[in-house]
Amino acid sequence: MTSPHSSRDSAGAAGGPDDKPLDPEQARFMARVKLLMALSGVATFLGIAVVLGVVGYRVSKSGGSTESELTVQLPKGSRITATAVAGERVVLTIESPAGIEIRSFDAQTLKPAGRLRFATEP
Predict the structure, then answer these.
(1) pLDDT below 50 — which residues of the chain?
(2) Helix (H/G/I), strand (E/B), else coil: 27
(3) Does pTM surpass 0.85?
(4) How far is CA 20 from CA 5, 17, 27, 80, in A?
């Protein structure tokens, strides 16, 4: 019983004894294809490495929760009348004998971010 496939087809892409050597033009073309495949593999590897690097950087930059402690000196006779969180700021409204003052702090570091004082006209 004979196979419908020729002996060349049964050898497959692995190359068999019936394969003829490539002429110089075909050899140059195959070398160019191999080079482009290698460049494509390197570009894919670099792309994946960059994406993983950016994800790792962002995860490490967020750093999770860090505990901060800060003691703020208020003027004598003053009291905090309101607190709020606005975006990435903690905002305090302070009422003192000199007038009303609003202070804001960075929510992550608790460093002072701004101060707004209200005074009455004499």
Answers:
(1) 6-11
(2) helix
(3) no
(4) 18, 8, 12, 91
